[in-house]
Amino acid sequence: MPTPAPIAALLESPVLNLGGRVLLTLPFWSSGIAKLLDMVGALAEAAHFGLQPAWATVIATLIVQLGGSAALIAGRLAWLGAGAMGLFTVLATLIAHPFWTVADPVARFHERNIFLEHGGLVGGLILAAILAHRKGRH
Questions:
Q1: Taking Cα atoms as reference points, which of 3, 14, 6 lies closest to residue 137?
Q2: pTM value?
């Protein structure tokens, strides 16, 4: 069954396309802005997870979160932005949400959900890179 014309028009809408890219990157650019506004907290977070030197971790994180978001939203080097954010998400999820090590069943359940949600986010970034490539936004 073909896509109904009004739905097809909506899916081709540049406004919906832009809105989707802004929403997909929301966790990254909002976190990057929060880190810029609270560098002491950002450095403490990196140190908490044993990521040393903390300042280098924070700088790399800001580049990925803000630069990757900008690339995907702007549609310029979208594959690179999506790929960097995807890899970052995989690494951050493995470091921050190892649910398999949590003894408390309720806490393990919550950590597992976060882990799986991040997996879904990575899938969305993969699809965004594919769509950007197909639309010629390299």
A1: 14
A2: 0.92
